[in-house]
């Protein structure tokens, strides 16, 4: 039941398994399992430079973090009152930038949420509850973003978003 992939700066590949465990595959092909438990079970996966793992729990409308010490922390969604992205609605994709800022495609809210390493959560793009693609300056407009990726455009960092039509 593998559902996502994430690669860290050392080239290790990670994938979440059913029941919240995480499989690690080193560049040399050594496979190990990090037991996290059902509380961490999600459909996406990202790992930051500090060894924290992140996943989205789509049905619970939450973003959760697994620390290197094994603590599981809900950091956004489902009524967590730390931001204007507190009401996640079907968060389907996540990605990290070089500074460990996490971006979440909040599909049914038509937004991209941003979580800083300090845990500050904000709306990065789109307007909550407003559907429709509007190109140009942020916040712009999105229509059910389902996937996101970081790359470069004209030599500058860019966040690419896949919207539903």
In short:
The chain has strands at residues 6-7, 13-16, 22-25, 31-34, 46-47, 53-57, 62-66, 72-77, 91-96, 102-106, 111-115, 121-126, 145-153, 156-163.
Task: Describe, in plain words, how this protein is organized in 3D.
Helices cover 0% and strands 43% of the residues. The chain contains no helices and 14 strands. It has strands at residues 6-7, 13-16, 22-25, 31-34, 46-47, 53-57, 62-66, 72-77, 91-96, 102-106, 111-115, 121-126, 145-153, 156-163. The protein is globular, with a radius of gyration of 15 Å. The model has no long low-confidence stretch (mean pLDDT 86).
**How large is the radius of gyration?**
15 Å
For this structure, the quaternary state is single chain
The 3D shape can be described as globular
Report the end-to-end length measured between terminal Cα atoms: 28 Å
Tell me roughly what share of residues is in helical segments.
under 10%
* Overall mean confidence score, pLDDT: 86
Q: What's the arrangement of strands in the largest beta sheet?
A: 1-2-3-4
Structure classification: mainly beta
Strands, count: 14
